[in-house]
Specification:
Elements: H1 15-25, E1 32-36, E2 39-42, H2 43-59, E3 67-71, H3 76-87, E4 91-94, H4 101-111, E5 115-118, H5 123-130, E6 138-141, E7 153-155, H6 156-162, E8 177-182, E9 192-196, H7 197-209, E10 219-222, H8 229-240, E11 245-248, H9 255-265, E12 269-272, H10 274-281, E13 296-299, H11 306-316, E14 320-325, E15 332-335, E16 348-349, E17 353-358, E18 371-377, H12 388-394, E19 395-396, E20 399-408, E21 414-419, E22 424-426, E23 429-431, H13 433-441, E24 446-457, E25 460-469, H14 478-488, E26 497-500, H15 514-519
Length: about 525
Amino acid sequence: MSIPETLTMPKNFNITSYFLDKNITEGRGNKTALICGDEKYTFLEIQQRTNQMGNILLELGVEMEDRVLLVLNDSIDFVASWFGIMKIGAVATDVYTYLKAADYEYYLNYTRAKVVIVDPATYSIVAEAAKNAPLLKYMLVAGDPSTSLKANEYAMEDLLVKASSDLEAASTIGDEFALWKFTTGSTGKPKGTVHTHHNTLYNFHYYGLKVLGYTSDDLVLPVPKLFFGYARDAALVYPFGVGGAAVIFPERTTPERLFQLIEKHKPTAMIQVPTMMNAMALHPDAVKYDLSCLRFCTSAGEALPYEVYRRWKDKFNVEVLDGIGSAELYHIYLSNTLDHVVPGSLGRVIEGYEGKILGGDGEPVEQGEPGVLHVRGGSAGVMYWNDRQKSVATFAGEWVNTGDLFRQDEEGNYYFCGRADDLIKVSGIWVSPQEIEDCLLEHPQIKEVAVIPYEEIKGLILPAAFIVLKDNGAKMEDSECIAYVKSKLAPYKAPRKVVFLEELPKTAQGKINKKVIKESRWD
């Protein structure tokens, strides 16, 4: 049975034509669309720079369906490059700016990008990686390179001066490849999920419009950087779809910087992650700041513990629309909404999508029982690039196997129980690390926590808790943490080992990086 199709998808469709160029044809050319640092850019200025970028890429021999890799910090150049790539029918791939040369070597060879676009902060390390990327032809360096460029490396500003600001969009079919979204690589190397032009339109319609309710009056501030698709779409692309605007910043994200930007620009929506929400709510100067300009903030990227939601809501009185999405389904498919918020849950399946929770036998579980969530909707990716086996396992016909464990209550609300491959079997019973983490976060002294499997003796796997206290100078006994969990949950769920750290490692998206914790020596 197919999902009832209520959204008419045009056969010919180009992301840039719809989300950027449409604003000029509808009379919003002189409206401020982007604020970056002290600079403001109108839709017309962004379109002109996008057209110049497209023309530069065409001059360098980039053709339809070719991949172009972005390794850029948040800037007008990121925005214009991303839109410019897809305007000419090429495929946009973008990655984090905090990686090692070996990582960039992997991405360059995996994407087989003809062109990579960098900035002064990423130039040297990508140039090192490029030595072992034989299919790469050119490197564009945004901003001031501050160094002598080598053969086939070009300063973007020099080329922009010569490039025409007129460009006809490629006549792309909506089902043509437009961009890749990378998985986080928690199990092996990151995989590129291939998405079409239509996928962006589909999720924009059902999430950007029907859940977030964006209008031309919205100004959106993202916490994660634009290379994280969750932030790029929710804070930049989707507001542009209705003539709204975005505030971006190139520097590192901190509570202090976010408070400053909110105070200065008065955004109406904020694209958040739980780790930063927690840090802002616990900031010693938080009471000084008024966040009432925000009509909501979203949360995604990792589970939002009830205790973090409560801290944020008590401190700032701004509603949180907690949701979950994935690279495989393009963006958010489960979410709370402004008229239906259930703290601790991820809300319901949003319109345009369907979900089902299956047990190990592939059959639906009883209500309230945990199982693996499968989702279908018109924004599902086509495949993982160059990985047929994993593509077949994940993209099972119309349904996408999310690999996430959920349970559902009587009202249809979904509750995250962890990754299917993160469960810990204790005394023959499966235990969800998420449940233990949520419990520990309720302790008044605990700021952050990650629970991972701990092999006490060979073959005996038990839960270990890695904890950051709100006051790093404070002391807390292991036994107190263990006793606290036992007082709230079944005793077998209590951690057998407790490690106190000054901070937990984070991914580029701001999520706690359990992979790094697992690979570190802490015995």
